[in-house]
Amino acid sequence: MRSVLDSLELMExxxxxxxxxxxxxxxxxxxxxxNSLSSPKTDWDKSMSAPGAIPIMLKAxxxxxxxxxxxxxxxxxxxxxxxxxxxxxxxxxxxxxxxxPADREALRTPETTIYAIDVSFAQxxxxxERAYMxxxxxxxxLPPEAVDRLxxxxxxxxxxxxxxxxxxxxxxxxxxVAPLQDVGKPAEVASPRGK
Length: 195
Description:
Number of helices: 7
Structural class: alpha+beta
Number of strands: 4
Shape: elongated
Order of helices and strands: HEHHHEHHHEE
Mean pLDDT: 78
Radius of gyration: 22 Å
Helix content: 40-55%
Low-confidence stretches: none
Largest sheet: 2 strands, parallel
Distance between the termini: 34 Å
């Protein structure tokens, strides 16, 4: 996320002083923010003795990472909102009559729309599925069933995302459901309307 933010910051800074960037032709930036943080339940509240140092340390190490991830996503959303606001101001009738170069310079931002699509377990609406996902270990080796369930959950999260839905509307796209032969469950496919 930090490198994405740095690139957008550089793009905005160069644009603000009227210098070209390699991304000036880009009209949409789509960022899938995949947060693999899981929150497995503990039974600490059911024990008379306090948890040991290692379990506490393992729980505590996730807190700074989670806060850093949250901050990065919020910065991306702030950038998205700023660019949208500046674009609306530039397109407003009031701005069309403004000939002050300082005003024009102050409102100069890239003509790029940012879509920040949050993919995290917190977005799951099914309590049982969210609990299952939160109990999965953060590992590069998971059983095939867990991998399949993770992929399916990610698909549901993305399809339900307001940002993804906004992207589809902006592109004039829709979701078509086609059956999968090997699994027997429908697969969602994005495609432009009329095609």
